[in-house]
Design goal:
heterodimer, A: mainly beta, 6-stranded mixed β-sheet, 5-stranded antiparallel β-sheet, 0% helix, 54% strand, globular, B: mainly beta, 7-stranded mixed β-sheet, 4-stranded antiparallel β-sheet
Chain lengths: 116, 114
């Protein structure tokens, strides 16, 4: 089955870049996602990348995808204290068999702490 | 604005009690999901539903059941709550239409079983 792995903690200083890494196992993944969870809240989609892309940039966020190594990363430039949250990597399997119904498999979540 | 609403944000129940967690979405989504979130384990899928009255087991269905009588509502049921079911429960929905497959999440229901 699918498996998604992330490191649990990352601590950075305000203004530095943060890089959160993720590895996944399902080579048939179609979309890969980064979700953000702020304290006491549900998950919100931060960004996503389609599996035929290797990079996506959206303002301060850069997503890099290495399909060969099944490695996904999220870079946050100029990290702010408001970026402190839990970040989840997730993958969506191919629906070719018609049985995934849009299920996402999530990693353990990386707790990002930004120090002033 | 899209919305997934979980009726109870915080619940405290006793071992052996029956627990209902309700989730409603207003986006006419076909797919609905119940995940459980525990520190260091991330989100684990309990059950999901791709249509009214249809349900499929996720990765950790033991001790849980679900009900989907209407398209907009998906309920998670703990027939006899146990302390190891103390957790944060997250409901999500998505469309089956072609697109990014994004899941939309509710705010979560934090359940404590004493």
């Amino acid at each position: 089955g699918e498996d998604v792995e992330q490191s649990l903690f990352l601590s950075v200083r305000e203004g530095d870049s943060s890089v959160i890494n993720c590895t996944y196992t399902d080579s048939s993944s179609t979309y890969l996602y980064w979700y953000k969870q702020e304290p006491g809240a549900g998950l919100q989609l931060l960004t996503y990348i389609f599996s035929n892309m290797d990079m996506k940039q959206d303002q301060r966020l850069t997503v890099l995808l290495n399909k060969k190594d099944k490695h996904l990363s999220l870079r946050i430039a100029d990290t702010q204290t408001g970026d402190s949250a839990i970040y989840f990597c997730a993958e969506r399997a191919s629906d070719a068999g018609g049985t995934s119904y849009g299920k996402l498999t999530f990693g353990q979540g990386t707790i990002l702490t930004v120090h002033p | 604005d899209v919305k997934v609403t979980q009726s109870s944000r915080y619940l405290v129940k006793r071992t052996g009690e029956k627990v209902f967690l309700e989730c409603v979405q207003d986006m006419d989504h076909e797919n609905m999901f119940w995940y459980r979130q525990d520190p260091g384990l991330g989100l684990r899928l309990i059950y999901f539903s791709y249509d009214v009255k249809m349900k499929e087991k996720g990765d950790i269905p033991e001790g849980y059941s679900v009900s989907r009588e209407k398209k907009e509502r998906f309920s998670l049921i703990l027939e006899s709550a146990s302390t190891n079911q103390t957790s944060m429960y997250l409901c999500a929905s998505s469309t089956s239409s072609v697109g990014t497959g994004e899941l939309f999440f509710g705010e979560g229901s934090r359940l404590t079983v004493l």
